[in-house]
Amino acid sequence: MRLRTLGRTGLRVSDLFLGTMGFTTTAEATRMIDRYQDAGGNVIDTAPVYGDSEDILGRVLHGTRRDHFVLATKFTLPADPANPLTAGSHRKSLRLSLERSLRRLRTDHIDLLWVHCHDPRTPVEETMRALDDAVRAGTVLYTGASNLPAWAVAAANTGADLRDRTPFSALQVPYSLARRDIERELLPMARTLGLSTAAYSPLGGSLLSGRFAHPDAPATGRVDPADLTEHERALARTLHEAASDEGVGDAPAAIAWLLSRPDPVHPILGPRTDAQLTDLLTAADTTLSPHTLDRLEEASRIPLGYPADLIAQTLPWLDGPREVHPR
Q1: Catalytic: 50?
Q2: Cα–Cα nearest to 193, from 327, 6, 7
């Protein structure tokens, strides 16, 4: 598995991140982390709202093994719905959440702390100052933004740069063949600001797992075939046919498509069992043919809309008759 630097930092992170929402037992989590590490992975992503995930990770990684991983968790969503002080991106919420996560994870620092969602009640300057204080205190090393609008991330990092504070280094967003809307604003923003992009739900909520490639597919806990649109059904069939032609499974092919994108993307794997993880990890060694990539591109393409379409239309006019090459 390849290593890349996280955003504009020197932190080396693996192509594939391991998500822990599906962790339910220490024994199964240990097996999955062992397999992930053996494959070259080094980023484990959790959150206080992922059930007992933080507690399980604390038990599995306790001791010297902790230093072999980039441990990421989040704050903003309420740890206690009855206590409004545990929700939001303000300073007190951050402190309460961070202290709780440190206890549960049995560590003295978080390598990567994500703002879990956009909090329109809290000024972005307060959030960035509180995060910077945590970095300067050594309890957080790097920060990232999850589920924030592009304008908010851009404003946050611009203000951080001007005030010599810690900027966001990464973006965590839903991205897959089934959901490409981040290509409109968020992905170009990440490219411009030099942010790494971590993609959650890389299988589109199991749509791209292979089980919905046939019309008689049974319902699962997350997806009912009766609720799928014709576009989603067609996409699942196209992926299945293309993956079969490549001699790989549907899920690894969907992950491999993300790894092939021109902008660096780190899919977050969300296995519930060691067997699922074993299958997903094969994506790191899967290279899809240009024909397959074109086929999947055509089946999943979305209209970018305004202003991207207007920019594309006016660029030839701006360039004039002579070809202009980017530097």
Answers
A1: yes
A2: 7
Helix axes 124-137, 91-105, angle to 10 degrees: 40
Give the number of domains in the chain.
1
| Residue 265: strand, helix, or coil | strand
Residue 76, class by beta-carbon neighbours within 10 Å (0-12 exposed, 13-18 middle, 19+ buried)? buried
Domain annotation covers residue 327: no
Q: What is the pLDDT of residues 262-278, one digit of tens each?
A: 999 999 999 999 999 99
CATH number at residue 90: 3.20.20.100
Catalytic residue among 50, 142, 175, 200: 50
Side chain identity, residue 90: H
Q: What is the DSSP letter of 299?
A: H
User: Domain range for residue 148?
Assistant: 3-319
Q: Taking the chain, what is the end-to-end CA distance rounded to the nearest angstrom?
A: 30
For the chain, give the percent of residues with pLDDT over 90: 90
In a domain, 217, yes or no: yes
Q: For residues 54 and 23, is the Cβ–Cβ distance under 8 A?
A: no
The tens digit of pLDDT for each residue in 202-247 reads 999 999 999 887 766 666 656 777 788 999 999 999 999 999 999 9
- State what percent of residues in the chain have pLDDT above 70: 97
This prediction's pTM: 0.94
Give the residues across from 176 on adjacent strands: 179
Is position 326 within any domain? Answer: no
Q: Is residue 324 part of a domain?
A: no
